[in-house]
Amino acid sequence: MIDRLYRSRLFRFATGLAAGAALLAACTQMPQAPRDLSSVGATSSVAPASAAPAAPAPQLGTQWGEGLESKTRSVVTKRLSAQPDDVASLGYNEASAVRRAVGNNPERRLSMLLADGDVEWSVLDEEGRALPLQRARRGAGPGADDTFRLAGVEGARYTLRFRNLSERSYEVIATVDGLDVLNGKPGSLRNGGYVLRPLQALTIEGFRKSQNEVAAFRFAAPGRAYAANTEAGDVRNIGMIGAALFELEEPDAPRRQRRDAAPSQPSAFPADGAYAPPPRYRK
């Protein structure tokens, strides 16, 4: 059920379908916006004795890569709720750091299921193959880190792929290193996102530069990461990819029973458009 009617306010979004077509949508906002996540990621100065060791420092970030053609057009959509149907995140790092983080005999998979299985999320390499996702086995002890991680290679290009397995439409907000992939600003659940239609797929290849082009995602040294070379970036969020899903209003679509979604890694969305500005590398 629709919790409350949206007040008219336009957001811009884009979507890429399996055939390569894209939509840039405008969505009205709910009267009550989600909480500000600009301060997430802060931790207590005193860790409990049972806490797991801190994850290895990021040795990879994501660079503003070469331009790739990615055309869009505008549509108007409406969220069913101000609260997301799911929020998820992935950590990434150099292979040896990932091994240290997940331990021996980690759980492995090629994708994550979001929104109670409605949407499949995977990260693809330059050949279109899913990169393995790994996390420590559940029950590894108190405070064990259960974040899924993927191993990257400096210089390699990657893409984010979302496949809708349902008959419902979703808005997908994606962040890389804490920055919204559409506007280059700190990630926020209040931002607009990509539209993912029923039984179709969305591929996000980079930070959006315009309605016709994106800057490819490429793994790079943290100092070369986009987040380290743009005013909106925060190096503390390097090494994290985030995704949030909002179900969209569709007159004839079957409704999924809602549940409250708590961010597993809220640092993927650290704050509250235009498109992403180019980086300013230090000399």
Description:
The protein is 3% helix and 33% strand. The chain is mainly beta and 283 residues long. The protein has one domain. The strands form four sheets. Strands 3, 7, 8, 11, 15, 16 and 17 form a seven-stranded antiparallel sheet that branches.
Task: Break the fold down into its secondary structure elements and pairings.
Blueprint: E1 15-16, E2 22-28, E3 61-69, E4 74-78, E5 86-94, H1 95-102, E6 107-109, E7 112-114, E8 119-124, E9 133-135, E10 149-152, E11 157-164, E12 170-176, E13 179-180, E14 194-196, E15 201-204, E16 206-208, E17 213-220, E18 240-247
Parallel strand pairs: 2-4, 5-10
Antiparallel strand pairs: 1-2, 3-17, 5-18, 6-9, 7-8, 8-11, 11-15, 11-17, 12-13, 12-14, 12-18, 16-17
Give keywords.
seven-stranded antiparallel sheet, six-stranded mixed sheet, 283 residues, 33% strand, 1 helix, 18 strands, globular, single chain, mainly beta
Summarize the structure.
The chain has 283 residues and is mainly beta.
- Major sheet: size, sense and barrel closure? 7 strands, antiparallel
Mean pLDDT over the residues? 78
Structure summary, number of beta strands? 18
What's the N-to-C terminus distance?
Answer: 54 Å
As a percent range, the share of strand residues is 25-35%
In total, how many domains does the architecture comprise? Answer: 1
Fraction of residues in H or I helices: under 10%
Shape: globular
- N-to-C SSE series? EEEEEHEEEEEEEEEEEEE
